Amino acid sequence: MDKNNQLNTENKTFIENGFKGKEELFLTAFVLLSVYLSLGESIIPKPFPWMKLGLANIATIIALEKFGNKMALEVVLLRVFIQALMLGTLFTPSFIVSSSAGLIATLGMIFLYRFRDYLSLISISLVSAFLHNLVQLIVVYFLMFRSIDLNSKSIMLFVWIFLGLGVLSGGITGLIVEKIKIRRVV
């Protein structure tokens, strides 16, 4: 009887560890996918060198949809960290802008995901992209341009174009994820 209990305990531990191993495998796959998509976007022509479509967020949205809040946050934070290591921008202003915007946008995405029954992935992605660009602008302003007057027409035009392009790219990202037709975890 003692031996059977020991085997059951070992099997239970093996099953629990096996599931955790699968989750770690998916986390690794999502982080790699997001890093590859982010780096791949570098070759796409853009109106400004720092602008990206945000295709790396495809992996974040899939992780949120399939595995929940924790994995979505891990994907974003690990992607930003690994990409900064690869590009040599760790702890630079670029890293601060990217990590803060990515974190706030993902937290916004997680909040909106609570209303998933009423919101599509496209709308969640749109709002998340807007938040991402808004936080980027705020952080860049405080890091580098505090002395500039924001009431200038040219600056406001740039801000609205930047936010508009971000929302457009968020819509494209959300549409791609919707077309993949991921089954939700309920």
Give short descriptive properties of this protein:
76% helix; 6 helices; mainly alpha; 186 residues; Arp2/3 complex 21 kDa subunit ARPC3
Structural description of this entry:
The mean pLDDT is 86. By secondary structure, this protein is mostly helical. Helix 2 packs antiparallel against helix 3, helix 3 runs antiparallel to helix 4 and helix 4 runs antiparallel to helix 5. It has one domain: Arp2/3 complex 21 kDa subunit ARPC3 (Orthogonal Bundle), CATH 1.10.1760. The protein contains 6 helices and no strands. The longest helix is centred in the N-terminal third of the chain and has 39 residues.
Lay out the secondary structure.
Layout: H1 2-40, H2 57-67, H3 69-87, H4 93-113, H5 121-144, H6 153-180
Helix pairs in contact: 1-2, 1-3, 2-3, 2-4, 2-6, 3-4, 4-5, 5-6
Please indicate the percent range of residues in DSSP E strands (runs of 2 or more): under 5%
Mind telling me the CATH class?
Answer: Mainly Alpha
Work out the radius of gyration: 20 Å
Q: Uncertain regions: pLDDT < 50 for 5+ in a row?
A: none
Termini separation comes to 38 Å
Q: Could you say which overall geometry the principal axes of the C-alpha atoms support?
A: globular
Indicate the mean pLDDT: 86
Structural class: mainly alpha
CATH topology: Arp2/3 complex 21 kDa subunit ARPC3
Q: Can you tell me the number of structural domains?
A: 1
Helix content: over 70%
Number of helices: 6
CATH architecture: Orthogonal Bundle
